[in-house]
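Many introductory courses stop at the sequence. We go one step further.
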Amino acid sequence: MPPRKHRRASLITNAPVPEDPLRDFRNACYESGGDVPLAAAMCGLTVKEAYELVRKPGMQEVAGMVRSLENMTLDAGLTRTLNKALDKLQDRIDNGDVKINISTGQVFRQPMSGKDTAIAMAILYDKRQLLRQLPTVIGTGDTAEEKLERMAARLEEAVHGMRVVSEQGPDNSGIEDAQVVEEPDMKDLL
């Protein structure tokens, strides 16, 4: 592709606008979808010069616009694909899978299996919940911080609730400075 200069005439005087390599490169980047080597070729720049221009302050704005444009294009494409997939899935649920009887060559629709239907609905339900920014799992609603605070309170109660069982060791060995305590059951904290 031959180098292309982005020249335009002034709207007021119809005189040529002075060359601005950064502006030309920005426009080429936008047109090329952010492809720096292609934009460099469009402007007649070397790739090294193009990457030097990319580091200039005005280029971050262009990069953001290009990313935004690419995201919108990708989103539109994914939405089209999702709509087609949902239509196919709905047809499969309503009419069943297309099967061929090998012996007769006859084409027929077999109802979708319960397992396939359950899997498809579970996945779709989770994705719908995510799109609505709702939880996909039903839980207690406690945050991690609340759970940790509750656990700390239970541990404090357990430490204060320990009681001395005997002044001597469990085997009555006569050790007088050791105490045996009964520990509360803490299995439910795990």
